[in-house]
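Hey, can you fold this one?
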Amino acid sequence: MTVEELTADLVKEHEEWLSHKPQTVYDLVKQIYEPLLKMKQDGRTDSEICDMLTKRHVDISAGTFATYMKRIAKELRGGTRPRTARKQKPDSEALRATPDSRVNTSVSDSKEDSSAQMASRPKPDSAPAPSASPSMAGFTSRKPPALDA
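Sure. Predicted structure:
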């Protein structure tokens, strides 16, 4: 057997194998996409089409069928469209802090702003708000031992 004969024999065997190769449901739907799309355009529902396929021993749910049809349509359109970049919020530059940046606070001269700030502050004689973290309040330590020398 020559190299050419061996190559031709292998190609022939591979083609036979491909013709008997079990297909996935997606591959089958992709091969018959045009008639299925025509049926949908003529008013058939996904459920009706799935019932027709099930009668012909192709088991597929309506949700999976819809997903496959959308995916195939997207592939035929030329793949996915490039996603547009998200727009940056106008104030996001000001919020982005660097290690050596400082918070810039401005002092207002208006009496309304200062009175609003004063009203929001707690009164000095009011009790402090309870903290969610444990505190050292009420903690006493022992006196250090006296060193007798």
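Residues 3-20 form the longest helix (18 residues). Let me know if you want another pass with a different chain boundary.
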